[in-house]
Structure formats: structure tokens, C-alpha cells
Design goal:
Length: 53
């Protein structure tokens, strides 16, 4: 996202909520909390050098 709020990119694609995004220390993965399996679990999204999945 650009600092003016434009350029948003969706990084997940599922019907359940994905909350509390946080960057992994390696800056190449984004962690989210999701209820995809009926309970809260952690999921990692691989991203390229620009932060895009």
C-alpha cells in the first residue's frame, strides 16, 4: 500500500476472516490468524521482494 492509501493488494483468498497480519522477521512472509479450519490458526503467506503474494 502506498502511504496515501492506494495500491492495496489482497494477500488471502478464502471465505473466512483473516486477522492480525504481521510480518515474519525474514520480511518475505506475512502471518495471519484465520478461522479456515473452524478454529483460530496461524497461516503464513509467501510474498516476493515487493511484499506481494
Amino acid at each position: 500500500m502506498i502511504n496515501n492509501g492506494t495500491g492495496l493488494v489482497r494477500v488471502t483468498n478464502n471465505p473466512e476472516r483473516d486477522d492480525y497480519p504481521a510480518w515474519h522477521p525474514n520480511s518475505k512472509q506475512l502471518m495471519v490468524v484465520s478461522e479456515r479450519a473452524g478454529k483460530h490458526d496461524l497461516y503464513l503467506v509467501d510474498c516476493d521482494d515487493q511484499g506481494v503474494p
